[in-house]
């Protein structure tokens, strides 16, 4: 049996763009992706703190240090520029592996979306 557990979380970043005319995904500053252990193409879950929307898509890397958080395609209809979101990724593991997992949590500056410290 496998269970799903949190492996990565980017906590409280601000949406910088919403681009409806794109195939789909979320563009994330690659420095944030690396810090959280999220790889290009990985499925991520988005929670919008401003409107309560919850949805999933896949991650694509943006320019490192740019602070970009851009919802693309249909997901652009679920958020607004300036909304604060949480980005999470989960892993399928055995219960034994799940008991040992320590999620990689990233707490960037919410105004700039850059890693603090």
In short:
This protein has 117 residues and is mainly β. Helix content is 11%, strand content 44%.
Task: Please outline the helices and strands.
Layout: E1 3-14, E2 17-19, E3 25-29, H1 30-36, E4 43-48, E5 54-62, E6 69-72, E7 84-93, H2 95-100, E8 104-106
Parallel strand pairs: 1-8, 2-6, 3-5
Antiparallel strand pairs: 1-7, 3-6, 4-5, 4-7
Description:
The protein is mostly beta strands. The protein has one domain: Barwin-like endoglucanases, CATH 2.40.40.20. The protein contains 2 helices and 8 strands; from the N terminus they run βββαββββαβ. It has helices at residues 30-36, 95-100, and strands at residues 3-14, 17-19, 25-29, 43-48, 54-62, 69-72, 84-93, 104-106. The protein has an 8-stranded mixed sheet. β4 (43-48) and β5 (54-62) form a beta hairpin. The protein is globular and about 40 Å long. 31% of the residues are buried. The mean pLDDT is 96.
List keywords for this structure.
eight-stranded mixed sheet, Barwin-like endoglucanases, 44% strand, 2 helices, 117 residues, mainly beta
Q: Approximately how much helix is present in the residues?
A: 10-25%
* DSSP helical segment count: 2
Strand arrangement in the largest pleated sheet: 2-6-3-5-4-7-1-8
Uncertain spans: none
Secondary structure tally: strands = 8
Overall number of domains: 1
